[in-house]
Amino acid sequence: xxxxxxxxxxxxxxxxxxxxxxxxxxxxxxADRPVDQLGQAALQNAFQLLRGEYIxxxxxxxDEINRAAMQGLLQRLDLGAELVARSEPAKGREGLxxxxxxxxxxxxxxxxxxxxEAAEIGDRLADxxxxxxxxxxxxxxxxxxxxxxxxxxxxxxxxxGELLLKLQQPGREDARLFLAIGEARWTxxxxxxxxxxxxxxxxxxxxxxxxRGRALLVGAPTRGATVRYETLPLDDRWQLRFxxxxxxxxxxxxxxxxxxxxxxxxxFDGVAKRRLFDSAGPPTATVFEQGRPRYxxxxxxxxxxxxLESYIRRSAGEADDADRTPDSDRVLQRAVDMxxxxxxxxxxxxxWPAAAPVAPAAGKPAKP
Length: 368
What we know:
CATH topology of the largest domain: 2-enoyl-CoA Hydratase, Chain A, domain 1
Number of domains: 3
Distance between the termini: 75 Å
CATH class of the largest domain: Alpha Beta
Order of helices and strands: HHHEEEHEHEEEHEEEEHHHH
Radius of gyration: 29 Å
Shape: extended
CATH superfamily of the largest domain: 2-enoyl-CoA Hydratase, Chain A, domain 1
Largest sheet: 6 strands, mixed
Helix content: 25-40%
Strand content: 15-25%
Oligomer: single chain
Mean pLDDT: 82
Number of strands: 11
Number of helices: 10
């Protein structure tokens, strides 16, 4: 879901400036919203004054009041509800992005987080072989999904029979329980990449694994959209998407409108990240930097001098591809660096030689 507009961009500011001010914004505290300090009589009085004394009171119709009220309510609900067009949604690319960056490190990024992709992740982990580290990237922007897909993905990490999560609907005491099914394909820790684009299913997967002490979160805070959404039509153009059930961890913890905080915060521009995700290049190209072409033995055999060619282009005022800094995924780079450094330090334990005994000074007995 896209973030709601700020109060300063209220579309009814021209007609109902006071109403927009009273409605406030979802991020504001109750003390910062004067409307929360008004009783019912005061609210009715404010509307009557605006309709009777405002310089364009004739424009403040009941229809406009209802629209302003709906706009303010959606702002207050924040991640709880939004208006979406009934036009056919654009289908994003599906499928799993997988790459082995270095020996023993596997990178997986689901594009749509469907049950099919969850099964593909399980198959990849079953054939992981000598993989020692796993990076699961949950930063792909995607619409809200069904929690069956989140449970299917968690099946690859949690032993069969254990409680994964609960879905609680308002007004009902019983909750829908999701239990792990089948054999866990990955029993070690996993590095999860998260940010504000992480979907409700991605947040759920990250929350469950992090609560179990199985995951290290790298990236930026998530929004807290850990709910199951339902979408109902309003007219021939618009429909209302709203939170219908809330995801709870096995201990009853709710993350709705709270989100997850990364263990290792890394700032990265969301526009640049989406551009990298939309490109056809391999993930390794966003992590490892390529050096400027040099005149070496391969260039000698090819009868080319890339350094001279670059100099000629720059002298002529032409653009040189070698001067362009390619986009890099800073979050993924930090995760790969962290795991690579961990392997290096673990394999480079210093073994200090035993100290040679010191001979006692002449005339002094040796200490026992």
